[in-house]
């Protein structure tokens, strides 16, 4: 599991470490890791060596600038020609600057240095940054963009909000981000994630803090349901700040979560998912959702609704009925909403699915109907895109535009999960899945090619099947997003447009790659 922690968490963990270590230790660890990565990049890149390479440090007023200056000093000691632009000279990190000068580095105010550098270190702001880049930094960042330098962001690209991934104005576009101790949420969530380039974590010993965990290490987050907050003190207490952890499933996590039939399994024990979707006018959504559900690890798929004939023609494996969810046989989870329209019959289908006493995934038209209720059962999974999220938010008295939802996906997904009291999967450039408490999950496999008609119907059928197979709403949503994203990548071969049916066709291969070692996450 890849984990990111919010600034408040990082500060608390660092505070605990700083109290135990000699002064400056953490910054030296950060600078050493940063310099090692820069040296590697210089050796791999055009100069092919550190000696005589041109390095420009952009140093802001905080410790982020300190990290960059100390790393610059280390590179200067290895023969690099290092220059530093001080963006707030009166408040520059004094120790870092002294170290750089002592190692032979120089201060510069010549913008041309940015254009001819081999490597630019963005030490403008780190986790202390708020708002867009300030005017003093802009000409330097623009000049670096004009040149051929490899841009390395220190901890995170300046201008990206560390906790939300929002990019409120100008920001640094990094080729590589060297992040300390743990990922920051803004590095995993768009739009911030798209500014970070390749993210390389550097261990600075946060794992030494009780209960803390750098990438991949055990970290008690109180799992998906805990409502704990800021529990520090007693020796056995993990450092836990509710809502401060963001996770991204990796291939081995998905492998462990995928349902696998055992010798005892028959079709009913594997789970049956019910799909209440489509309408006489829009049968396609039903066909797509059922088709994906058939690949979702359940023993059978029931369809209930007006598109029964079209569904069985496309998928003879499905058990179909023309009535509503109440008249269908037993299922372990319902999917309700895709292509349902919003008439009285649709409303009844949503009511019946919500009252069925099993986990229910609500999508599309179902969400618009649900917004009028302003609440959902605790084991529901809501799967809005930004536009549907706006309607759902209105249902709990929150006014927001789609653009605002897209800009702060984590925040609005959490707000919906808390407001409706259930799990929410917010679709988009970075799909976010979260319950009212505990960690949020972001999907690492997405591709822009998934933004295609019917793609959401495929996702809801697949996630519903995983719910019926017994996964929790958080696991079902995040595993479905992972497989759906991977299938989309496989179907598009990277950049070829895909139709929703092609995503479904690629699901078996995505599943196969996810349950075997050998990796899938890009
Ligand atoms: N706290 C720690 O123990 C460690 C921190 N480290 C580094 O320290 C960083 C955090 O340092 P700080 O807390 O000093 O904060 P930063 O260096 O991230 O930034 C704070 C400074 O930037 C200014 N600032 C804020 N927003 C700005 C904007 N949009 N444009 C320009 N200037 C802006 C503030 O006025 C303040 O002076 C981390 O990101 C990491 O790089 C590392 O050295 C590892 C250890
Ligand atoms: K930075």
Question: Could you describe the 3D structure shown?
Answer:
With 522 residues, the protein is an alpha/beta fold. The chain folds into two domains: 2-213, Rossmann fold, CATH 3.40.50.10260; 253-266 and 335-515, Ribokinase (UDP-N-acetylmuramoyl-L-alanine:D-glutamate ligase). 38% of the residues lie in helices and 14% in strands. The strands form two sheets. The protein has an eleven-stranded mixed sheet with strand order 1-9-18-17-16-15-14-13-10-11-12, with helices on both faces. The protein has a seven-stranded parallel sheet with strand order 4-3-2-5-6-7-8, with helices on both faces. Helix 3 (63-77) links the parallel strand 2 and strand 3. Helix 9 packs across helix 16. The longest helix is centred in the N-terminal third of the chain and has 20 residues, at 25-44. The radius of gyration is 25 Å and the shape is elongated. The chain starts with a strand and ends in a 7-residue tail after the last helix. 58% of the residues are buried. Residues 213-240 and 518-522 have low confidence and may be disordered. Residues 64, 122-126, 153-156, 158 line the site of potassium ion.
